[in-house]
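Fold this complex.
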Amino acid sequence: MSAALNTLLRKRAELLVIARLFFATRGVLEVNTPVLAPAGSTDPLLDSFTTQLNGGSAPSQYLYLQTSPEFYMKRLLAAGSGAIYQLVPCFRNGELSQRHNPEFLMLEWYRPAWTLAELETECCALVDDLLGAAPYTRLTYKQAFIDFVGLDPFAASQENLRQACVACSGIAAEQLDRDGCLDLLLSHKLEPALKNLGRVIVYEFPASQAALAKIHQDKSGNKVASRFELYVDGLELANAYEELTAATEQAARFAADNQQRLALGKPEVVVDVKLLKALQQGLPECSGIALGFDRLIMLACGAASLDDVQTFSAYRW
Amino acid sequence: MANYATNEFKGGLKFMLDGDPCSMMDIEHIKPGKGQAFTRVKYRNLNSGRVGEKTFKSGDSVEGADVVDTDMEYLYTDGEFWHFMKTDGSYEQLGADARALGDTSKWLKEQEVYLVTLYNGAPITITPPNFIVLPVVETDPGLKGDTAQGGSKPAILPTGASVRVPLFVNEGDLLKIDTRTGEYVSRA
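Structure:
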């Protein structure tokens, strides 16, 4: 075995031990939930791998490889599991780049009765354990855009957003909706600016980007998602929500997602009705977070690409 | 020409952008965890030679450019065009203008084979081989015995190009030159 591979395997193992120790010490239970399941993520901007179950004692069934363990973990929370975490492979089709691999290791955990602020403190403590202690900068999404993109993401007109997109990327912006413009500006202007800022917590995302987070009003009266993202040296590392617990709202978001998928020419995704049932029976108020563990290993190793730190990436299948 | 969607983008793909044929150099997939995917392309404009960047929404497509690379032997110039002949046995001849020739004029040599990029059948870029052998037509006299150490001097090639050479090089010597850097490699 090459010295580089040996070092990598040991570094990966060491970081996994640190993470498990962190949660064990804090009384967070490690769980395992299905990676392959009959319902999937409806997120219009995520594509699941799909396959089929044939044979055995069940009828043929269409199955999704999970894009995150979120739904099953929420079912456990609703059943009264208390605080839980999971280190699990997740799968996202069409994602392969320096920072993406179609299969990657996710660290996801949930804290019943915790606020997003409490979870943020815990996330920073974990990252300090894994990468060494360092200061964190906190920025609202709005302030980050004002500082590094030069416009207010809530107040700017669609026209201004599109002009800014064209200016920094040359994209044919007439086909971009408001969130599309914001995503482009985030990836082309904000993320490069964050490269020089070390660890940055960006919070209060626009309500339209809430996904599975609750929505509240910021101090200017804008509707924002109860969500934060942790960036380290410009790399998106973790995404956290104060979790949506209302079953009707969740069902409405699933339906809206599938409408949007159809509009994008993508197949509808089978909705996890058991998750909706669990929400009806009562998901405790909680905050949850997903952290890309391979990206964290990248940072720990000072590597430039995910391919450098995955044992066998898709480039080396 | 065919259209190519973002998932078919790759280095070397020739496509049309604002009326110019371009060649893709680097392709970067960009995707926030919760957000839209984009494809950022670094490309070379084959008409101007300039390098640029443009982002495409995932799923967008571009029109392919009728661009082919072909090996051709340099024959002669009439002062306005530089004439090349295909080496595929067809003996077909094509004239390239000064813009297509560009900096390759420095490395031009009769009977040498060049990579000629054709757009709609006409030459738009002439790429020299990585290494070419050309004689020195003018340089200061060589210093006997100085075969390794120190110092360099300019030497002029038949094309008018000037390269830095070691002091021991004489007029009439054949030089091997790296056309990508314009640097002297060795005596040939």
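The helical segments of chain B are 98-101.
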